[in-house]
Design goal:
The structure is a homodimer of 199-residue chains. Chain A is 72% helix and 2% strand. With 199 residues, chain A is an all-alpha fold. At the A-B interface, helix 6, helix 7, helix 8 and helix 9 of A face helix 6, helix 7, helix 8 and helix 9 of B. The first copy, chain A, binds a DNA duplex (30 and 30 nucleotides) through helix 3.
DNA sequence: AAGTAAATGTACCGATCTGTAAACTTTAGT
DNA sequence: ACTAAAGTTTACAGATCGGTACATTTACTT
């Protein structure tokens, strides 16, 4: 019902964790940054890990919603949507708050395979993967649909390019990571006999 | 010059930081795991961050030496060496100690742009990049050498594939990340008119 | 106006954090 | 055998860690 405190906490905690790291951020810092008392926090979440899980759930929802909404704003034909993915990636990189992928970072700090935080990071990537696969499967060529094994291989390769771009951008290795990835994607489509796009 | 304590410390600290994270690992845990007294540690390194920097220097040296030695053991012709990169990547992934890329993880925990740890992570990736570029530049096609702008684009794209594969493998999203990346690399080479290999 | 649920401040727990001080023992080279 | 460096143990400082107890205040419902 309330729009309030709990959501407010999760939203603010997201920013702090994102900029500052999970382990490195103490609950006392969250108190200072959010103005919410520690007692209230522990009423809403039994442990710090529970709060982190809630933050990751919010992030997953926000990011996927925004990402694919933008993709569909930028293009309508599936083949163009696939390439638009990399333009949206670039938009993300250019946001001033960009600090890499929160799930890559979380899974680095909580890398134990049976940690629920780790599992949730894996889940997020799998959801990204399956959304991308949908776009690839929807592509139609002159000979009809793409064989599903080809589509799956392409979707996987696009994921590789996206994650690589995210990492190299965040590490300050490449400024043009997203556009380089896009060019690679074009090559990969062409290599599989797909070229019904004009950009 | 003894072979001793200092190097021993850095080597053991590497393992602990790699498995356990940097912020999450306290100096007391290092004492327990290495058997070296805290006083000795602080004789060798003024701060924990200095120790981390030494660990990263060792890791950079170890990893790059091992990686490109293996590449050159697996193949002699540049075109084949480029593809062997992804086989070596796979070997790395299958090592039981594999826990992702230490530099990606370090730069996630120390993401402030002016942090020397962050800079050192960036540096490592740039060194990887330039080694890969060397292999690509050495490729000879029927029409002679590859234009340097094409080689640079390819090297960048191979980096994207490698980092993406490392992340997706570490996050448990894909088991075949390195081989998927290799197939993508083949496509990218073909897309640029390069196909003088037989695998 | 009374009742109730939510949020608050403050003070605290025991453990752990990075880093230091001082005194003692081992080791290596002359 | 003497010295000096390198290593050790033990104890500690001061801050911060995740998490809790308790008493109080706010704000909405009836």
């Amino acid at each position: 019902m309330r729009p309030s405190k709990r959501d407010e906490l999760v939203q603010e905690a997201l920013k702090v964790f994102y900029q500052n790291g999970f382990t490195a951020t103490g609950m006392d810092l969250l108190v200072k940054k959010t103005g919410i008392s520690k007692t209230s926090m522990y009423k809403h979440f039994r442990t710090k890990d529970d709060l982190i899980l809630a933050v990751l759930r919010l992030r997953d929802e926000q990011l996927r919603n925004w990402f694919f909404r933008r993709v569909e704003e930028l293009a309508t034909r599936p083949i163009e949507q696939v390439l638009a993915i990399f333009d949206v990636l670039d938009e993300w990189f250019e946001q001033p708050e960009f600090q890499g992928c929160m799930f890559i970072k979380a899974s680095s700090e909580f890398q134990c395979a049976d940690d629920p935080i780790y599992s949730q990071c894996t889940e997020h990537k799998k959801l990204m993967h399956s959304s991308i696969l949908k776009y690839v499967l929807a592509i139609e060529t002159d000979e009809g649909e793409i064989p599903s094994d080809v589509a799956e291989k392409l979707a996987e390769q696009f994921m590789l390019l996206m994650e690589g771009a995210t990492v190299l951008k965040h590490m300050g290795v490449s400024n043009s990571a997203a556009q380089d990835a896009k060019l690679a994607a074009v090559s990969l489509l062409q290599g599989n006999g797909i070229c019904g796009y004009d950009a």
